[in-house]
Amino acid sequence: MVYDPVLLSKSIQRLVISGSQRKYYRFRGGRWYGGIATADCVGCNLRCVFCWGSYARDNPARKGRFYTPSQVFRRLDKIARKRRYRFLRISGNEPTISRDHLLSLLEFIEYTNYTFILETNGILIGYDKTYAKALSKFRNLHVRVSIKGATPEEFSKLTGAIPEAFELQLQSLRNLLDYGVSVHPAVMLSFSSRKGIDYLVTRLNDVDREMVEELEEEYVFLYPHVVEQLRKAGIWPKKAFEPDNIPGEYI
Hints:
Elements: H1 5-16, E1 17-18, E2 21-30, E3 36-41, H2 54-58, E4 65-67, H3 69-83, E5 87-91, H4 99-110, E6 115-120, H5 123-127, H6 129-135, E7 141-147, H7 152-159, H8 166-178, E8 183-188, H9 194-207, H10 209-213, E9 216-218, E10 220-221, H11 224-233, E11 240-241
Parallel strand pairs: 3-5, 5-6, 6-7, 7-8, 8-9, 10-11
Antiparallel strand pairs: 1-2, 2-3, 2-4
């Protein structure tokens, strides 16, 4: 049964947000971006069949514990200082579900020399342009919008969401650009045809030519639990990577 990810966000929020606190299940270092401290959060508004963080996504009431923005910052800062990282991020599930928590965390990071990489599916930023406006106040923020598939139909097949929500991902790029937020798109291409990729490139070009030039390709990593998810869904990637081939990330 298809779902509306905006409505799903509201039901997930009740399980992963408590006041200014949000649930996280892990803090770690990794070599993406040349080295980045990562807080893995609980709760997402999409149900991607290729998701490596699906256990935390599907068990928000049982997984993780609550942290305040200051606690999250201190954990990330400790990792970054120890490993001499310049970048921080939230990953694992969807950071934008907890808007107030995220903005409060960014306030702490604003007074440092770190760059925060906001990795998001863009749904909520596309739905509400005031989210992009709120993010625009932070000087050391870069947003990476991860588009799930190259077409609305592919998006729906991979996420189980209504195909119309695909447009919210593209709208998030427009909203962020309108407010002068540093942003680039990434796209899951493991399941895409040449025709689908051409469609996405056309749509991104309509947003801004620079979005085409900065498009980052994503591909599935075949962890055992991801393989099981794909088999159950009857979907298999055209291109994927084995976990041993992941370039230096600790997961």
